[in-house]
Amino acid sequence: MLICKTCGYDGPYQLGKVCPNCGREYEMSSEQTDELIHYVEQTKAAKEYEGYIEGVKILADFGCTEYEREYGIMLERGELVERNYDLAMEFFHRGAQKNDSYSAYRFSRLVNRINSESGRFWLIYSAILGCNESYFEVAEEFDHAGLTEDANYFYYLAAACNNVDAIVVMANRYYEGKGIEQSLAYAKWYMDKLRLPPIYAIKLAYKIRNVRSSEPPRPKLKSYDGLIKKLIAVAEENEYDSAYLKLNTILADRGDLDAVAVVGVAYITGYGTEPDFNTGLGYLISGAANGSIKAAVSLGDLYIRGEYTDVDFKLSEKYYERAGELGGAIGFLILGDIYYEGRACKRDIKKAVFYYDKATLLGSPHAYEKSRRIKEERERLYKDAFNKSLGERFENFLLSAEMGYTKAQIGVAECYAKGEGVKKSSVLSFAYYKSAADDGESSAYLPLGLAYATGFGTKLDYCKATEYLKLAVHHGYDKAAQALESISKHRMKRMAQRHYSRAMELIYQKKISEARRELEIAADLTNPNAIYTLGCLYEFGICAPCDKERAYRLYESSYRLGFRDPRALYKLFVLKRIR
Question: How far apart are CA 398 and CA 517, in angstroms?
Fold first, then answer.
């Protein structure tokens, strides 16, 4: 039926997909497969069994699940072919690995002779997949194990498929209340499903003959998810890849977030299925968004390793942090390792310690140990620096600072400020003071406040200067209080100067009343020029009653503050501007 393209052999087909004449593997296209399926259906309808058997054998051997099952049945029963349990078991196993429920059931019955544990797994798995024939046997398994409530669930499924024994069992259980609510009405409902009760059920039928029946509710499996998880463990241990994926998919559909992650990874890697990157990625993203630590870590791994997609460190970091935020120490631990090793990013031991400490807070002993070793090393480098020359001291400070030691950052900042062991740089000095302050190092607040106040390595910013100097005062640095007082005076002086300048502009515009208000504000802020100018206004009665005594008092006040007007030139200047 299959002709070898290499040697032209067209004799009887032998299992193995290899030409018995030349030993080359047969090839069969999808079109040939469709033609052969059509041929098999025709020969079966026409009862041309020789052609039918040959076609089924080829289709089964080439992986058509329906015909793997069909050929397995023929071999098991000895129908049209010689009975061969071992070969039947092989074909049933092929179908079971493709999640064919009946193949899984028949394989479980055959393999049970050799390995009862394996037989039990495939039996229960076939029931999970929906094989009607397996329900009653699975119920019996649970019943013998003492799991009555779970047994009732599968007896119910078998009874729903009109299994007489299961119907009688459910009737008896409702009658006796065995692992289920006692109810004669429910027992009667089950007995009414039988046209004629079997001999062993006649006595029960007689007892409840006059009871009015009522349809019972569907029993619940006591621990369905628990059962699936047990099967998953067996499937993983025995490398039943497709069953492992299928069972995890069932759990994922029921909302199990860890299972969602497993399914996502399986689709991406092709574990138990054909690789499907987009489907797998969809599972992982959904899992991470809904709170799966495992999905978030898997996404981080996906983008950092670059095996199935391009390396994307930012995405990887995002998902590892997501895992950590969800309470998974592993996410922060992995980020710590990445930064420590400089994998896919610039090495940053300070950031590594940051993530190790976050993982430690979530209970990771490995992260604690790694963080402890780094902290001991950076402190040793800092202490050793004071026993070295200036150049070597700077190198030690720098190494320790790069490992996140805040005191070493202060050391580096001072070296840059003074030019000790390195070229002087106010900008770099400021940067290290700022980094230390951001990390909570209190000794950095005073120099940082002074830097903002004087423009050392940065722009003048009195607000930030005040903020950091107040922090320094709070931590007991007395010099910070003096600096704050100096800044306050300087700011008042600048404010007074602004009001005085504004007043002079208004005087020039002949807006004397408004100018006087500005001068009074500036005078209150002890600007000597403003005080003297107010004296001029009072002396000559400009926009105010003439009051020479007050004018002279104002002149004396301005003199005490250092103002001088030789030959009254300034006074003449003011009068000239007013006129």
Answer: 56
Q: Is residue 317 part of a domain?
A: no
The residues, any chain, with a CB within 8 Å of residue 334's CB and separated by 6 or more, are 297, 300, 320
pLDDT > 90: what percent of the chain? 61
In a 13 Å sphere around the CA of 312, the CA atoms on its Cβ side amount to: 12
How many domains would you assign to the chain? 2
Band of residue 539 on the pLDDT scale cut at 50, 70, 90: confident
User: Rounded to an integer, what distance in angstroms lies between the CA atom of residue 540 and that of residue 578?
Assistant: 11
Query: Can you give the CATH number for the domain in which 394 is found?
Result: 1.25.40.10
Q: Is 446 part of a structural domain of the chain? A: yes
Distance in Å from the first CA to the final CA of the chain: 123
Confirm whether 13 is domain-assigned. no
Residues 426 and 494 in one domain: no
Token pair belonging to 499: 């009001």
Tokens found for residue 456? 């050392």
What span, in angstroms and rounded, lies between the C-alpha atoms of 406 and 20?
A: 78
Residue 427 · residue 460 · CB < 8 Å = no
* Residue 420 to residue 387: CA distance in whole angstroms: 15
- Is residue 401 a part of any domain in this protein? yes
| Its pTM surpasses 0.70 | yes
Show the domain range for 565.
487-578
368/248 Cα distance (integer angstroms):
34
Residue 199 has what DSSP assignment?
A: G
Predicted pLDDT of residue 424: 92
Concatenating the DSSP letter of every residue in 120-154 gives HHHHHHHHHHT-GGGHHHHHHHHHHTT-HHHHHHH
Question: Does residue 488 surpass a pLDDT of 80?
Answer: no
Amino acid occupying residue 238: N
Q: Is the pLDDT of residue 471 over 80?
A: yes
For the residues 31-59, what does the mean pLDDT come to? 91
Phi, psi of 25 (to 5 degrees): -75, 135
Calculated CA dihedral for residues 126, 131, 136, 140, nearest 10 degrees:
10
List, for residues 500-538, the tens digit of each pLDDT value: 899 888 988 888 889 889 988 888 888 898 999 889 888
For helices 293-305 and 313-325, angle between their N-to-C axes, nearest 10 degrees: 160
Q: Residue 188 CA to chain centroid, in angstroms?
A: 54
pLDDT attached to residue 564: 86
Q: Do residues 359 and 367 lie in contact, with contact meaning Cβ atoms separated by under 8 Å?
A: yes
List the CATH number of the domain containing 567.
1.25.40
* Domain boundary pick from 442, 476, 510: 476
